[in-house]
Amino acid sequence: MFDHIIIGAGFSGAVLAERLAAAGNSVLVVERRRTIGGNCHDERDAHGILVHTYGPHLFHTDDEGVWSYLSRFTRWQPYQHHVRAVIDGCAVPLPFSLDTLHDLFPATLADRLEQKLLARFDYNTKVPILELEKTPDPDLRRLADYVYEKIFLHYTMKQWGKKPEEIDGAVTARVPVYIGRDQRYFQDRFQAVPEDGYTRLVDRMLESSRIHLLLATAADDILTLHDDGTIDAFGAPFAGRVIYTGMLDELFHFAHGELPYRSVRMDFETVPLGGADRCQPAPTVNYPCNYDFTRITEFRQIHPCPQAGDVTTLLREYPQPYRRGENTAYYPVFTDEARSAYEHYLADAKKYKTLSLAGRLADYRYYDMDDAVRHALDLCRDTFGITDAEA
Ligand code: UDP
Q1: pTM of the full predicted structure?
Q2: What sign has the CA pseudo-torsion 356, 359, 365, 368?
Q3: What is the SS3 assignment for 19?
Q4: For labeling, which of 12, 68, 186, 297 is most exposed (least CB within 10 Å)?
């Protein structure tokens, strides 16, 4: 038997497995899919272009501990993400910045708005759109209404099926209005993509002979949770710890109803380059106001693929409602009702002294990759006394 069982081979599960194995434990990792890496999974397509199966993943962090921990398993290719948004037919820098202001407005108006912004906010600061809307100055209010309408309203309706003010403000605050001229999508200290991709990175984390990987297997196939707080694995009582990184409603057979998620249909297309080195002006171009898709990502601009020939692969993302059994859960939808249902599931989970939760799905949080790694490392320290020090 194994010392511990981890459900899910995404970033969270892989960090926990790696740390536990490094500390001498035998670990079984059970993954429903036939692939590892969770939604970070990437692979080369038929043209040799490295594509992100579940949408663009750009690693960025200010957490030096996370950065140095992951650096044990990959070499990095420095990469700073740039996004443009098509507004009134022009592809302008996103986040909306002072440069975007000057790209979209006549010079005298842009100058006046810039001065007003700088009188109200410090240079190089970030202002969430819902904050900017509260400014009393009528010119800045008009600017806020414009940015809200052109960048946030329709994109958010497509992405979430709700208006920006109907969802948690932290979601739109991920893409603030930027009182500065930095045109990068993220400002974190460490920004890069793994040289051989995320799947390879996770593969290296799972390399230990103490880690056993069981693919194409659901948690339900091997675990039984009893009402008395005990857990069986493979039909026998299991005394080790079970770390669950899947959807919590599923673990408890939807006893408190289904937690809402958003899904996305990923539509890949390979097109000729015609001798050019790229087919769009930035690695990701957002289409807030038009079309049913939210954005197009061109992977060759993220991972150079000199061997790929005169073609490029694009990904269009079409947000969808999540339908269990039919598509993939990507984003938790944070409504009050969902949070309260989640709390019920959390209370159920706490009845099992040997059960821990980790990751975006089980924690029902909008984690970035570095958040998932940080939480997994902290869980290792707090639950097992294992630190992220070199083992
Ligand atoms: N958003 C928007 N317009 C944009 C980009 C983002 O309204 O052009 C909002 C939208 O609600 C989105 C959120 O900001 O869900 C977070 O965007 P981010 O790019 O961080 O989303 P992710 O890459 O995680 O899907």
Answers
A1: 0.96
A2: positive
A3: helix
A4: 68
Show the domain range for 375: 4-36+206-259+333-384
- CA 152 to ligand 1 center in whole angstroms: 8
* 346-383 pLDDT tens trace: 999 999 999 999 999 999 999 999 999 999 999 999 99
Q: Could you tell me if the CB of 85 is within 6 A of ligand 1?
A: yes
Tell me how crowded residue 171 is: count the other CB atoms within 10 A of its CB: 18
288-306 pLDDT, tens digit per residue, is 999 999 999 999 999 998 8
Residue 358 falls inside a structural domain? yes
As separate numbers, helices (DSSP H) first and strands (DSSP E) second, the chain gives 14, 22
pLDDT digits (tens, 9 = 90+) for 172-199: 999 999 999 999 999 999 999 999 999 9
CA distances from 132 to 115, 140, 146, 157, 241 (A): 15, 8, 11, 19, 47
> Are residues 172 and 131 part of one domain?
yes
Q: CA 290, CA 312: separation in Å to the nearest integer?
A: 23
Residue 164's SS3 state is: helix
Coil, helix or strand for 224?
Answer: strand
Tell whether ligand 1 has an atom less than 6 A from the beta carbon of residue 151: yes
Pocket flag, ligand 1, residue 12 (CB < 6 Å): no
CA atoms lying within 13 Å on the CB side of residue 146: 14
Number of domains in the chain: 2
The amino acid occupying position 91 is A
Furthest C-alpha separation in the chain: 75
Mutate to test the pocket of ligand 1, among 155, 163, 185 (most ligand atoms within 8 A of CB): 155
Is residue 161 in some structural domain? yes
The tokens for 124 are 């190089």
Q: Is the dihedral of CA 228, 234, 240, 246 positive or negative?
A: negative
One DSSP character per residue, 269-305 reads EEEE-TT-S-SSSSSEEE-SSSSS--EEEEGGGTS--
